[in-house]
Amino acid sequence: MPGSITPMIHVPDVRAASDWYRDLGFVLTGFHNLDGAWSWARLTLGDGAVMFSAGGKASDAHRREVDLYLNVDDGLDALFDSLKDRVEVFEPPHDTEYGMREFIIRDLNRFWITFGQPVAT
After folding, report:
1. Distances 112 to 33, 67, 93 between C-alpha atoms, Å
2. Closest by CA position to 68, among listed 81, 55, 49
3. Tens digit of each residue's pLDDT (9 = 90 or more) over 85-104
């Protein structure tokens, strides 16, 4: 069964979430406007995609129900430097025991986004 998977995250404000992710470099590829408010949007980054749907709740939880993991081919530290003053940093760049260099930020709805790049051996 060939195919791909695209997470759909329920958020309080689809347009605000879409704008936040676009500021990170995601590309808006579709949205649905229902009575003046966005009810759904799809954004892509490289080969990946994420969708947002209306109806999510605000949260101040330490960790939300979904995390996003973005694989970076190279330049993880430079990417962190370009983002760190514009986002909430949860963990700065660090090497993991499983061979990845990662950093974690929170989006405007406090979902974790981990950026990971294989550690050169």
Report:
1. 26, 5, 14
2. 49
3. 999 999 999 999 999 999 99
Name the nearest CA neighbour of 53 among 7, 14, 109, 111.
14
Single-letter code of the amino acid located at 89: V
Q: How far is CA 38 from CA 22, 62, 102, in A?
A: 15, 27, 32
44-57 pLDDT per residue, tens: 999 899 999 999 99
Q: Which domains does the chain have, with CATH numbers?
A: 1-56 (3.10.180.10), 66-121 (3.30.720.110)
Distance of CA 96 to the CA centre of its chain: 20
Q: Which helix (H) or strand (E) holds 71?
A: strand 67-71
Residue with tokens 């050169």: 120
